[in-house]
């Protein structure tokens, strides 16, 4: 009979084991419940008289028996009295003598009817021996059974394999079975070969190791390769059940492996494993395996896709993410004062739902040696790691990809989001022209297959358009902190960025003091030689940047821009044009050809191809009329155009302005705010409106649209506010049940 101490499992796992054991032992259906500071109920069932019997579990391996009894008397007894159950059963992972059981019965008298309703470690171990299927059902329990331990370490395995196995076994307490793990087991059962892939920190190595441990417990001998496939071939024994494990089998650089002919050797070994009493488990980063597939036909011949499984953090369910965090908390050596920080306002929900959630980050923030701050600084420490998880990507960028791939990934940063394949191809072509890369001869397809799945996500939209984005937003965070702020690197890489992205991103980077203004100024001057070929919008943007950086007008650009304005330009630059003209009018009206500009304004008003409800548009027209419209004729014409446009568009404008405040109980629509919006638009302008004109525009606002959006945005706002406070969304109940109301006590 096994003698479990249960110290390898957490309290929630212990409660489930007790529930399963008592269901079998008592022949009842035990329900499990939330355990928290106000509960006192871990399970219940109904007896033959339909009376409720409550089950309380205590799994506190670091608490002495005397302290446990004190806790029961002080904390648990008042809860039981309040619940007043027909019966009460107590189970603990602590070993109990007959005297101990009597004392616990007396503590909970009259609710515990008999001493045999108190179960200690020795009783639970007996039940486990009586019901071996329950032992097998609970993975961590089974892994530490006497029979499995004998199977694990009684084989004549090499010293290295033994060390790896012991290390994996030790880490098993921190492992959480996920759907990905179960699917990997099924893949392996079907094919005998399994390649587990994924991005850094997603859990591929942990999952592969635990599968090895599972098989070792099934009487498989573990053989671990340190560097070469030959190590596995030399240990091959036809008559023996064996599991071969090769972590990161293609290494950091696929071409090194290719030169050593690792691919063909692995191919032959996998073919050898396909049938019989052997299993072969390999891991690889997704990008390295993709490069391998492209560079050799061996993976195609092997049909490797049949036994590949990619672990993606996005595929974890919220509850699986919660289990991973909770298990780390339970086994953490952090003081309780730190854990209370995570429980405050249910902040653990914020961690679980964070866009950068990653098992490696969870390990980092719950490991004592990494937490070098006081408890009151711990939440900020967690947020910093989630917002900028450098450690996840540093190794991949520095040693896991070539410099051409790295620079291509970094260039994508300047586009601030989803990028079309056409743009990525253009960036790649620009880099290739430099000729400074050892693999510059490679095609775009070769590079993108290497990066897809590891650092980039490729999406084919319903229209057929192909786009790329980072696999995780933290990739961009890492690039920003590690590369963009380096002057030498910035000056080299920025030359490949098109004008529009160069202007937009560098403006933001300067404002946030990531880069220096002189870096940008130098690049701007280097591009001005081709200014005549720029689109009007780009010319104005360069003009504005130069004025910002030098506090001077650039006469050459100004002349080019005015020429474009007078002679016509493509749609999409109106806002930039109006701002430019306003600035020029305020600088010196002598730069303006009044007749040409008046003609252009009348053209705009005729086709109404720019948004007259933008305050800056009205401000521009007001400035123009103040300086050039002495007769007031143009001003009247403009006012009529604006009024007509406003009546058609006031609803959308009002819903987007600061006056609009979402409210759930909006029943009767009040136009007073809309009146204020219209009045503010025309105040202090030459286009003053009468009260009746203001009300005519205000009453054009669509009441139904305002009410609908008001209620919708109120609901969204309310949910966001609840999230900030850590309150439950729909579906969070299971997570809150798992965590309880306070940090687990041991």
What does it look like?
- Strand 12 (456-460) and strand 13 (466-470) form a beta hairpin.
- The strands form 3 sheets. A 5-stranded mixed β-sheet has the order 1-2-3-4-5.
- The protein is flat and about 105 Å long.
- The model is unreliable at 252-259 and 716-730 (pLDDT under 50).
- Helix 16 (318-331) runs parallel beside helix 38 (733-739), helix 28 packs across helix 29 and helix 29 (536-550) runs antiparallel to helix 30.
- It is α/β, with parallel strands linked by helices and 746 residues long.
- The two termini are 26 Å apart.
- Helix content is 58%, strand content 8%.
- Residues 175-331 form the Novel STAND NTPase domain.
- Residues 7-60 form the Restriction endonuclease type IV Mrr domain.
- GO terms for molecular function: endonuclease activity.
Structural class: alpha/beta
Oligomer: single chain
Q: Which stretches of 5+ consecutive residues score pLDDT under 50?
A: 252-259, 716-730
- The best one-word shape is flat
Count up the helices.
38
Strand order of the largest sheet: 1-2-3-4-5
Helical amount: 55-70%
Radius of gyration equals: 34 Å
Extended strand count: 13
Let me know the average pLDDT.
Answer: 82
Q: How much of the residues is beta strand, in percent?
A: 5-15%
Largest sheet: 5 strands, mixed
Domain Restriction endonuclease type IV Mrr: 7-60
GO molecular function: endonuclease activity
Pfam family, one: Mrr_cat
Keywords: Endonuclease, Hydrolase, Nuclease
């Amino acid at each position: 009979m096994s003698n479990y101490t249960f110290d390898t499992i957490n309290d929630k796992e212990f409660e489930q084991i007790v529930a399963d054991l008592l269901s079998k032992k008592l022949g009842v259906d035990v329900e499990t419940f939330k355990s928290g500071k106000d509960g006192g109920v871990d399970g219940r069932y109904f007896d033959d008289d339909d009376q409720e019997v409550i089950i309380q579990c205590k799994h506190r391996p670091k608490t002495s028996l005397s302290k446990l009894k004190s806790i029961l008397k002080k904390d648990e007894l008042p809860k039981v009295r309040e619940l007043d159950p027909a019966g009460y059963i107590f189970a603990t992972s602590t070993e109990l003598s007959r005297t101990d059981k009597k004392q616990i019965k007396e503590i909970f008298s009259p609710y515990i009817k008999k001493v045999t309703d108190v179960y200690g470690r020795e009783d639970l171990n007996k039940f486990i021996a009586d019901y071996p299927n329950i032992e097998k059902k609970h993975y961590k329990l089974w892994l530490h059974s006497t029979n499995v331990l004998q199977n694990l370490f009684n084989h004549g395995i090499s010293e290295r394999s033994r060390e790896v196995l012991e290390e994996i076994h030790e880490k098993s307490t921190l492992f959480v079975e996920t759907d990905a793990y179960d699917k990997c087991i099924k893949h392996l059962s079907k094919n005998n070969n399994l390649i587990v892939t994924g991005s850094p920190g997603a859990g591929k190595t942990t999952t592969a190791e635990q599968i090895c441990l599972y098989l070792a417990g099934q009487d498989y001998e573990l053989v671990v390769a340190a560097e070469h496939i030959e190590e596995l071939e030399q240990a091959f024994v036809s008559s023996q059940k064996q599991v071969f494990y090769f972590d990161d089998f293609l290494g950091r650089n696929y071409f090194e492996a290719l030169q050593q002919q690792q691919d063909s050797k692995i191919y032959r070994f996998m073919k050898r494993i396909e049938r019989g009493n052997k299993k072969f488990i390999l891991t690889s980063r997704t990008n390295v395996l993709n490069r391998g597939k492209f560079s050799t036909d061996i993976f195609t011949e092997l049909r490797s896709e049949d036994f590949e499984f990619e672990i993606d953090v996005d595929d974890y369910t919220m509850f699986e993410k919660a289990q991973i965090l909770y298990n780390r908390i339970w086994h953490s050596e952090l003081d309780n004062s730190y854990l209370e920080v995570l429980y405050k306002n249910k902040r653990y929900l914020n961690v679980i739902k964070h866009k950068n959630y990653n098992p490696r980050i969870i390990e980092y923030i719950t490991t004592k040696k990494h937490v070098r701050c006081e408890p009151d600084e711990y939440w900020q420490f967690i947020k910093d790691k989630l917002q900028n998880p450098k450690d996840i990507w540093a190794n991949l960028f520095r040693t896991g990809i070539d410099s051409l791939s790295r620079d291509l990934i970094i260039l994508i940063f300047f586009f601030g989001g989803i990028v079309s394949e056409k743009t990525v191809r253009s960036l790649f072509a620009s880099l290739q022209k430099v000729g400074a890369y050892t693999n510059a001869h490679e095609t775009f397809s070769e590079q993108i297959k290497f990066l897809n799945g590891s650092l980039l996500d490729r999406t084919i939209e319903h229209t057929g358009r192909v786009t790329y984005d980072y696999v995780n937003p933290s990739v961009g965070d890492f690039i920003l902190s590690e590369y963009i702020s380096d002057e030498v690197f910035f000056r080299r890489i920025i030359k490949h960025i098109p004008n529009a992205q160069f202007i937009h991103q560098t403006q933001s980077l300067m404002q946030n003091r990531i880069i220096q203004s002189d870096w940008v100024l130098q690049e701007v001057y280097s591009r001005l030689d081709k200014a005549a070929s720029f689109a009007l919008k780009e010319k104005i943007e360069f003009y504005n940047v130069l004025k910002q950086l030098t506090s001077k007008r650039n006469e050459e650009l100004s002349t080019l821009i005015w020429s474009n304005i007078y002679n016509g330009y493509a749609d999409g630059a109106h806002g930039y044009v109006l701002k430019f003209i306003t600035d020029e009018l305020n600088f010196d009206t002598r730069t303006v050809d009044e007749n040409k500009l008046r003609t252009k304004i009348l053209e705009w008003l005729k086709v109404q191809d720019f948004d007259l409800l933008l305050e800056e548009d009205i401000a521009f027209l007001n400035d123009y009329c103040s300086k050039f419209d002495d007769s007031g004729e143009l001003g009247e014409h403009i006012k009529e155009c604006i009024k007509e446009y406003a009546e058609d568009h006031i609803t959308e404008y009002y819903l987007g302005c600061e006056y609009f405040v979402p409210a759930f109980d909006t029943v009767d629509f009040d136009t007073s705010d809309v009146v204020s919006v219209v009045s503010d638009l025309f105040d202090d302008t030459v286009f003053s409106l009468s009260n009746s004109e203001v009300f005519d525009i205000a009453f054009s606002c669509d009441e139904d649209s305002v009410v609908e959006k008001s209620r919708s945005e109120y609901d969204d706002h309310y949910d966001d506010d609840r999230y900030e406070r850590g309150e439950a969304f729909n579906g969070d109940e299971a997570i809150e049940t798992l965590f309880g109301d306070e940090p687990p006590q041991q």
